[in-house]
Design goal:
heterodimer, A: 294 residues, mainly alpha, MetI-like fold, 2 domains, 13 helices, 0% strand, B: 294 residues, two-stranded antiparallel sheet
Chain lengths: 294, 294
């Protein structure tokens, strides 16, 4: 009897060892792949910052130096003063901020109605709304341009603010799905306390939607901050340009001056990257939430 | 003052709540679509009066070599972008889902390109692809390989743009996959191990079926975004050299806002819409492999 137990434990010991060795190899392989991949993700940013700190001639060195010698901050000053960067930041911030706040209000209102109120034509209107998500923006681009030209909105920020607030079917859908899960008792109690529908929406429902609102807010902010095609079409005056437009016009201005171009890219990217590093939890939770609902 | 029935009051509130989105839907989506459809049958240079052409804007495309080039390029781009982004982000997500250290840092790195503006990042990549002094060819040179002209090469321009798009898209889809993976019960894997399943079997019998709704969602979204690519080719090549990287939206933009052919541009936008619609419907039709029950 004792020998049998011994034999069995010996065999399972070697099995265990083999398994452990395999697992170590597997882990090592995973780390190598993941770290290599992560480096590939970071290289363009490192290369951007490296170039932006080099002197004019240093970019033509071979092989290229990763750490510039000497550090040249002149490129940043040149980039900052060549085009109205500060103004572009303000324009982008203003447009994106207004669109985000407006979207959160208009989408949560519609989402609340579709989730919680019974009204005539509800299902039909909801299906129409969802169908519009399929339509590529390029189709409406041309007629919208004609419309805004007609009413004098071209070369103003209005075409970049008003339509995005009022046409966000995705946002309505996301918030409607989220609000559908709320228990009705909460609202019934509020109604007995004498709150009207607006007060229930504003005081009871909205505070309970924070995760979904945060998700939609981050999406809206990112999409509009990086929006390029619409500003490209609507804005002519440099003083009205947004950050992506300024970057594009930099390219036209300094076609081969890569040190200044990279400094300009860095000025536009670094604030966003810093915000991301501090608030990344919300970015990731937002995508997770929308992915599961969508 | 007025004594509406509860039902009428509810309807009134609901229309008030959905009002902003419905006004936007009518003014900025449905109206423009009808308008775009109408002008797609006319010849209309901005400023002149439209003349009726019938189907000519559509039939003309069939014999237009640039149009076919654009169709081929956009499809080719989708054929590189969709599978590589899909497989890349799935592999990273599967690996990050293992019991490893430094998860948060790795995830931060992979997601970083997602939050950055594609316009600024495209500028950085244009510099990396620089045939003479860019990081890629300099690095290849160190190991004795003479790299191609990348963005100025007929053969490599479009794949170069695709690589950058994959780089920027992997993080987003990785997060969606990670969320899906976290929803799969650990007990299923434990049970499979007891039954003697290996890693490959665990993937195909458990992970893949349970992740299939996420995979399907990612597939549909990638297809739509691939066909709508604009910022990257606009910034990096303007469609060149010799239309080698010209794609649908860039072609529409050129027709409408460089040559002011609003009618023809609208017709091409409708063709794009129909292509996206057909592919999306096909994906839904062949979605038997997607498992929604689990």
């Amino acid at each position: 009897m004792p020998s049998m137990t011994l034999g069995r434990s010996k065999r399972s010991d070697t099995q265990e060892n083999g398994k452990r060795v395999r697992q170590y190899f597997m882990k090592g392989f995973i780390y190598i792949v993941l770290i290599t991949g992560a480096l590939i993700m970071l290289v363009p940013f490192i290369w951007m910052i490296s170039t932006s700190l080099k002197g004019q001639g240093a970019v033509f060195e071979y092989p290229p130096r990763l750490i510039p010698n000497p550090f040249e901050f002149e490129n940043y000053r040149k980039a900052w003063s060549a085009l109205p960067f500060a103004l572009a930041y303000w324009n982008s911030l203003k447009i994106t901020g207004l669109v985000t706040i407006g979207t959160l209000i208009s989408c949560s209102m519609a989402g609340y109605a579709f989730a919680k109120i019974n009204f005539v034509g509800k299902n039909f209107l909801f299906v129409v709304l969802l169908a519009t998500m399929m339509i590529p923006g390029q189709i409406t681009l041309i007629p919208m341009f004609m419309l805004f030209k007609e009413i004098g909105w071209v070369n103003t920020h209005l075409p970049l603010i008003i339509p995005p607030i009022l046409t966000n079917a995705f946002g309505v859908f996301l918030l409607r799905q989220f609000m559908s899960t709320f228990p009705t008792e909460l609202e019934d109690a509020a109604r007995i306390d004498g709150l009207n529908t607006w007060q229930i929406y504003w005081k009871i429902v909205l505070p309970n939607c924070k995760p979904a609102l945060a998700a939609l807010g981050i999406f809206t902010f990112m999409a509009n901050w990086n929006n390029f095609l619409a500003p490209l079409i609507y804005l002519n005056d440099e003083s009205k340009f947004t950050i992506p437009l300024i970057i594009a016009s930099f390219q036209g201005l300094y076609t081969t001056d890569w040190t200044v171009l990279m400094a300009a890219s860095a000025i536009s990217l670094i604030p966003v990257l810093i915000i991301y590093l501090f608030a990344q939890r919300y970015f990731i939770e937002g995508i997770t939430l929308s992915g599961l609902k969508g | 003052m007025f004594n509406f029935s509860r039902r009428a009051r509810e309807n009134m509130w609901a229309y008030l709540f959905i009002g902003p989105q419905m006004i936007g839907l009518t003014l900025f989506i449905i109206g423009p679509i009808i308008f775009a459809f109408a002008i797609s049958f006319t010849e209309w240079d901005i400023g002149s009066t439209p003349t009726w052409l019938g189907l000519e804007n559509y039939t003309r495309q069939l014999s237009d070599s640039v149009f076919w080039k654009v169709v081929r390029n956009t499809s080719f781009f989708a054929l590189i972008n969709i599978p590589l982004t899909m497989i890349g982000s799935l592999i990273i997500a599967l690996m990050l889902n293992q019991n490893i250290k430094g998860k948060v840092i790795l995830r931060t790195a992979y997601f970083m390109p997602v939050v950055t503006s594609s316009v600024a990042v495209a500028l950085v990549w244009t510099w990396m692809y620089n045939p003479d002094f860019g990081l890629i060819n300099s690095s290849l040179g160190l190991i004795g390989i003479e790299g191609p002209g990348w963005l100025s090469s007929l053969k490599w321009a479009l794949p170069s743009i695709a690589f950058m798009t994959i780089w920027q898209g992997i993080g987003y889809n990785m997060i969606l996959f990670l969320a899906g993976l976290q929803g799969i019960s650990k007990q299923l894997y434990e049970a499979a191990v007891i039954d003697g399943a290996n890693g490959w079997q665990k993937f195909w019998k458990i992970t893949f079926p349970l992740l299939s709704p996420t995979i399907f969602f990612v597939l549909v979204m990638l297809l739509i975004s691939s066909f709508q690519i604009f910022n990257e080719p606009y910034m990096m090549t303007k469609g060149g050299p010799a239309d080698a990287s010209n794609v649908f939206v860039l072609h529409i933009y050129d027709k409408a806002f460089q040559f002011f052919k609003m009618g023809e541009a609208s017709a091409i936008a409708f063709i794009l819409f129909i292509i996206i619609l057909v592919f999306t419907l096909l994906q839904f039709k062949f979605s038997k492999w997607v498992n929604y029950d689990a």
